[in-house]
Amino acid sequence: MDVTNNIEGISILEQGGIVIYPILLLGIVSIILAMERILYIRKGQIKGKDFIEGIKNLLRKKRLMEALTICEEHSGPIVNILKSILLNTNRSKDQVIEAIQTTAQIEITLLERRLPILVLIVNIAPTIGLLGSFLSVYTAFSRGQQNGPYLNSSDFSGILASALLSTIAGILVGLIAQIFYSFLTAKIRSMIEDMEWTAHNLTQFILSKEYQNQNEFN
Predict the structure, then answer these.
(1) Cα–Cα distances in Å, from 169 out to 14, 24, 109, 119?
(2) pLDDT at 105 > cutoff 90
(3) Is residue 8 part of a domain?
(4) To the nearest 10°, the Cα dihedral for 163, 167, 169, 172?
(5) Around Cβ 139, how many Cβ atoms within 10 Å?
(6) SS3 of 83, please?
(7) Most CB atoms closer than 10 Å: which of 17, 48, 130, 203?
(8) Are 184 and 115 contacting, i.e. CB atoms less than 8 angstroms apart?
(9) pTM confidence score
(10) Which tens digits make up the pLDDT trace of 166-203?
(11) Contacts for 202-211 with beta carbons within 8 Å, 24 or more apart?
(12) Which domain holds residue 191?
């Protein structure tokens, strides 16, 4: 049963023509890139509200170094934003905001890394599929001119199947890459919103009179 399925799979690849292989490669690349980005984003996710409340409680107890140590034990965009704020707690509001903006730009760049490759696959895969179809149609006309009325109908059907398979494969891979891209951009947008909320929350706290008076008093 498995042998039969393998033979059928090989037969389909052969019918798709030479362009089916780059399309297949693009499909594999898009899956690998998407899985890598999903794992990267998941690794950077934390329970924002609980984490930031823990940091604020440490700051109320004047345990800044412990708060920084906790941030060092975690990774990801949100934690790095918190770290940039903690490292600038004794500076002016403008300096804190500048540190947040610098860190946010770096983190957003890291989050969006490799997404342009998915966009490229979305555009290229269907085009390669169409190219395969045109090549198959050209082959059909070429054989028709050579053989005239003696063109075998089974040969013509095989060429037509090749044209359809390459187009279908290209559109399918492009669609898969588009789904991955849309999913990842939604996740990244959600992560950026969490970064903004976290930055605003902790910045408001360290600039509050409660925290400022506590530091001045001590």
Answers:
(1) 13, 8, 32, 17
(2) yes
(3) no
(4) -160
(5) 16
(6) helix
(7) 17
(8) yes
(9) 0.78
(10) 888 999 999 999 999 999 999 999 999 988 998 888 88
(11) 202/52, 202/55, 202/56, 202/82, 202/85, 202/86, 203/85, 203/96, 203/97, 203/100, 205/56, 205/59, 206/59, 206/85, 206/89, 206/96, 207/93, 207/96, 211/59, 211/60
(12) 28-212
Q: Record the tokens describing residue 191, joined without a space.
A: 């992560």
Assigned domain for 5 exists: no
Domain count, the chain: 1
Who contacts 72 (Cβ-Cβ below 8 Å, separation ≥6)?
83
Question: Are 202 and 125 within 8 A, CB to CB?
Answer: no
Tokens of 136: 């198959």
pLDDT band at 211 (very low <50, low <70, confident <90, very high): low
How confident is the model over 117-156, as pLDDT tens digits? Answer: 999 999 999 999 888 877 776 766 666 566 655 555 565 5
| pLDDT for res 176 | 95
Cβ contact 63:75 at 8 Å: no
Domain presence at residue 135: yes
| Neighbour tally for 169: CB within 10 Å | 25
